[in-house]
Amino acid sequence: MTGKLIFFDIDGTLLDHDKQLPESTIDAVHQLKQKGHQVAIATGRAPFMFKEIRERLGIDSYVSYNGQYVEWENKTIYRNPIDTDLLEKLTDYADQHGHPLVYMDLETMKSSAEFHVHIQESIATLKAPHPAYDPDYFRGRDIFQGLVFCTIGEEPLYRERFPNLDFIRWHQFSMDVLPLGGSKAKGIEVALNKLGIAKEDIYAFGDYLNDIEMLQYAGTSVAMGNAPDIVKRAATHVTKDVSEDGILHGLRMVGLL
C-alpha cells in the first residue's frame, strides 16, 4: 500500500452535532482518496445504521459494532458475536433491575421492552426510531452488540456481575455491551493482520470513550475538539470541534492534506 489508511469514527467525528456530514468533511475524504490514501470507518454503529454515509463518501471498508464485525472492500473478514448464554444471563439480570436491553445483529435491532423512555431518548440521538419489541431476538442468531439502558452510576452492577463482557457508556441512559476485550482497536488489528499493513501506516480520528483504544493503537491519532479530556489524552493530536471543520483541520495538521 503506497498511501496511508485512515479510520474515522462517525458520531461527533464524521457527523456533526446535528448528525450531518459537513461539506468540508465530504471534500476532505474525497481528497484523501484522490491522493491514493484508503479511507475506512470505525464505529459503534451497526452496518445498517450507516449505509447512507458509506455510499455518500464512497467507503466500502469498515469496523462496526466497536470492532465485532469487520468488512473490507465489501467482504466479511471478522465476526465476533456475543455468547448466547451470556446474553441470556444478562437479560435476566437486567430485567430484575428494571433495565431494558436492545439486541443488534447485522439486519436490525430489537428491544426487550415494548417501549421505554430511556431507549427512545438514547436511540433518537442516532436519528433512529424505538426498536420493535422482540425479547427473544438474541436466540438463534449472531448478536454483535447489545445495549443496556441504565443511568450513570449503575455501571458497577454489570461490570462486577459480568466480567466476561465489556460495558462502555455512550449515552447518559445507555451502555454498549460487547464481548470481553472487544474494541475498535481489536477490529482494526484483525484487519491490518489480514491485509499486511503496519499500524505505523494508519491514522485514526475519534471523539468518545469507545475510541480510546483505537486512538492509542493507531500510529497517528487525532481526537476531535469536542472530545472529553480523557479521549484527547489518548490521542497524539487534537483538532478543532467537528462543527468547525475539525476533520479538514486535523488532516492538514498531520500532513495528509
From TrEMBL:
At the top level of its lineage, which domain of life is listed? Bacteria
Transmembrane regions: none
Record-linked InterPro entries = Cof, HAD-like_sf, HAD-SF_hydro_IIB, HAD_sf
* Pfam families xref list: Hydrolase_3
**NCBIfam families associated with the record:** Cof-subfamily, HAD-SF-IIB
Q: What is this protein called?
A: Phosphatase
The record lists the organism as: Cohnella kolymensis
